[in-house]
Amino acid sequence: MDSAQRRLKVLLVGTGALGSVYAWRLQTSGKVEITAVCRSNYAAVQQNGFLIQSAAFGTHTYRPTKIISSISNATGEIYDYVIVCTKALPNLGDNSDIIAPAVSPSTTIVLVQNGIGIEEPFARRYPQNPLGSAVAYIDASQPEQGIINHGHISAMTLGAYPPHSEHSARLTVLSEIWNQQGIPCTV
User: Fold this and answer.
1) What's the whole-model pTM score?
2) With 80 as the cut, is the pLDDT of residue 88 above it?
3) Which candidate in 49, 51, 66, 79 could, as Cys together with 35 as Cys, close a disulfide (CB 3.0–4.6 Å)?
């Protein structure tokens, strides 16, 4: 496969309902390989994949390209993107270090987390890496490990951090794939 056909390598950190649906849509494009960090749901997802019951896209079993139990198992790969879909708790401390083993100089970091002002710790720790942040609109839940219920909503708005930076081009690549896969996404 030449570089024009090479699939993007994405590390997904946070495989709850939100992360699972967005990763599934990226991987179904055929343009992306997903390595999913599954912690509490590792055994269920390793055995069965994710059963995604979606009003928008139908019911599917989604198996990420690779399933790992911790970020320390993500070493040895160069990821084009690390997408962080964990809860942001900035009042409890800086959690930007959790992705450190997977970030290379060419990795774009995308935060799909709750909260305002969550970008600064990542910008300080990874000053040379493109950084984006998202506002996600999704109606999804994970009532059991590996079982995802998704309704009709799954839109997203991405923005470069700092605003108006040259990082928008890297975010546009993801946005185009999500749009092609039925996730309305703007940059």
Assistant:
1) 0.94
2) no
3) 66
